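Revision sheet: structure tokens.
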Amino acid sequence: MRGGQRSVLLLLVLVGAAVVLAALRNTNAGSATEAAVLAAISPVRSALTSAASGAAAAIADAQRFDDVRNENAALRAEVARLRSSAADVQATRRENEELRAALDYQRQNTDVTLLTAHVAGRDSVDSLDTLIIDRGASDGIQVGMAVLAEGSLAGRVRSVSTTSANVVPVQSTSSVVNALAQGDGGEADGIVEGDENGGLLLTRIEPDAPLAIGNLVVTSGLGGGFPRGLPIGRVIAVFTSPESVFREAAVEPFVRIERVGVVQIVIGRSPNSP
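Predicted:
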């Protein structure tokens, strides 16, 4: 017999006993009978009381569990909100730092005209992983213009629409930039190309050109497009291949393109520049 059925049966027994006691209450045998009945049903009454207490405790436990579950859900939602707020604050702080750096670079480099833009998104077109910026032809942006981030070369404008443009990062395998490696011994001409690991490689360096680890690599200004002297990175290794008369150097880029949120486009030289 199930617990619920037993409880109903016990309740019926108690009700029957109560009816008998009420009928005998006014008779001579009432007191003795009442004592006997109460003694007989005492275990039943205790069982019902215990069952009722257990049921009440179970209901209270269920209510507490539900309250705890709701409280945990509320706490998780609050934690998610706080994390989102912290991320927004961090992103805003980072953007403000980039904007200040861009303004400082413009003040220190008055020979070029720069236009500040925000990175609106990223897109993979023919495996180029281009940046999408919120400036376009209506702002004077043209294909081939140099794009800077934190005062160093970040890439080149690949395509332009009226209000936006796509930028090929300097680390892209399709990027080619005429460059110089500058050190105490002089300058070494070469070409900076992106490699498959997201780094840079300075190629086609003459065998007798001065080149050493730590040399600063900048744009050479040759071939048009980019002004001379835009920082690109620093030499971290030099290679000599028996299959080529030219040397090569691994270059650590100054710009980590995945972290860029604000860029500057070199749209021309300032009127007062030489």
